[in-house]
Structure formats: structure tokens, C-alpha cells
Specification:
The chain is mainly alpha-helical. It has 12 helices and no strands. The radius of gyration is 20 Å and the shape is globular. The model is unreliable at 4-14, 152-157, 189-194 and 313-323 (pLDDT under 50).
Length: 323
Amino acid sequence: MKRWARHLGLLLGLIATAAFVLYATRTLQGQDLSRFMSGTAIIGIAIAATGYSLIVPLSAMAWRRLLLDMKVARSWSELCIIMSVTQLAKYIPGNVGQHIGRAAMSVGRGIPLRPYGISVVSEAVLAVVAATFTGLLGCGLSGMGGELLKHHGVTVFPPIAILVLVFVLALFLAQHLLPRLLRSMASRQSADSTQLALPRNRTLALALAVYILNYVVFGTGITAMVALLLTGQQAQWFLLTGCFALAWVVGFFAPGAPAGLGVREGLMLGLLQFNYSSPEALLIVIALRLATTAGDILCFAVGAAASLMLGQQPPSSPTPSIT
């Protein structure tokens, strides 16, 4: 990536973060934040953090199957360690640290670079498809579409059409262009290397199902958190899961935002305010960031402990920040 693109991405990430902090300060001014310190709120955030941390072992299952199709056999526990230890590095702007750290750990543990690259490209494309599908389906089943049409009429058609178009394009990419891309990557083998096998369509479909399951599990944790944080308010699983999934897609394509910080929160605020008041939506978003950060720390702690028990020293990771 060119230097100007990296700088632009970082600038956009900083602007989004600053805008979110400013909005949060103004919206929460005079609001009672003691609910964050209540026992039920802490339990709710812990439940959401646990659900979020389960993404690592689930994703490691899919990664293992992708590698197995390319004749690279690694244990599920070893892949869990790699993914866990590099979690905190995504708080470096642009997630650069996570990508570099994961690649370095994988190659250092004997995973060839080309199968690693093919598996990660497959993972990224399928993750975007899974998030877009889950987001559109969740928000649609939540009744948000009807509320948008009722209050905003034809003005909502363009963004809805764009979201549907993004999903169709992502699905087309996964179904038609992804196999072609993987074959192209495999064909760049050196002359003395053997032909590299590629993930089968059945394996790609299984990985896609696992990535959708990630949102089902974490969405359940988010719903429990909201039910405990906003007592008396209805916690809608479809709405909360769909909003997070769509926000993740936007955060994924925000090159300068550490772990989607600011960008993801901004979109979730806009979506949640159709069913919650502004202070309530903001409390949910802040609690969600606390939960995901706690989940990343939990993953790193467990992965680092497992790595040390196996005699493998984990690389250092930067301390995450939610400000």
C-alpha cells in the first residue's frame, strides 16, 4: 500500500474516533452512568466478552480445514494460539500488526507462506460475505426495514439498494472470483515446487457457515448484555446481531481505524437509534466496545499462557485503547 493511502486511512480513522468521542461526550452529559458499575452490567459485559472470544476457537476450526485441503496439517490448538496471541495487535491502526504478527507466527511454526496467504484471503472474503448476509438478514427480520420506510420513505431506498448490491457483489466474489484468485496465487509456485492444492468448495462453504455462526454466538452475548444493561428495555437479537455485523463490514474496510474504532461505533449508533433513544444506543455501543476489548485481552491471555506452557514465547502486543 502506498504511503499516502496509509496516511489517509490513519487520518480517517482518527477523525472517526474523534467524532465518536465528541458525540459521546455531548450525548452522555448529565446522564447517569452508574449503571456501568452495577453488578448486572458487569455480568452482561462479561457474557458479551465471552461470546466474542469464542470467535477465535470457532474461526480456528475453519482455518484448520482450509489448510488441510492444501495438505498443511496443523492442530486446532496450535492455530488457536496463533490467532489468540495476535488479537491485540489489531489495535495498531489499519490492523497491520495483527496481519504481520499472524503471518510471522504461522511461518515460524512451519506453515508455508503460500498456503497461509491463500487461507487468509479465503477467510477475509468469506468473513465479509458472512457479515453482510447476517447483517442484512438480521436487520430485515428485526423490522427495521419497515420502520425506515415508515419514517423516511423513498430516501432509504438508495442505502438499502447499496447494501443489497454489496452483498450480491460479495457473494459473486466468493462464488466465482475467489476460486479464480486462489488458482492464480497457487500458479505462482517456483519451478521446483509441487502443485499446490486449493480449498474445496465444500470446505469454503463450511468456513462460511462457521463465520456466520460467529455472529450467532456473539449476537447472543450482545443480547444478554443489553438485557442486563438496560433493564426493562427489549433486547432484540436480530437487530443487535444485524447491526453489529453490518458495522463490522464497514470497520473492516476502514484502513486507518484500529479494530474499526470510531467507524464501527458511528454506524451502530445510527442503526440502533431506530429502536433505542440516543443515550441508550450510546450506552450499548460503549458497552460493546468494552466487551470486545475485554474479549481480545482474554484471548491474548489464554493464548499466551498456552504458548508458554508449550514452550513457545509469544510476541509482544500493544496495549489496546478504547479512547
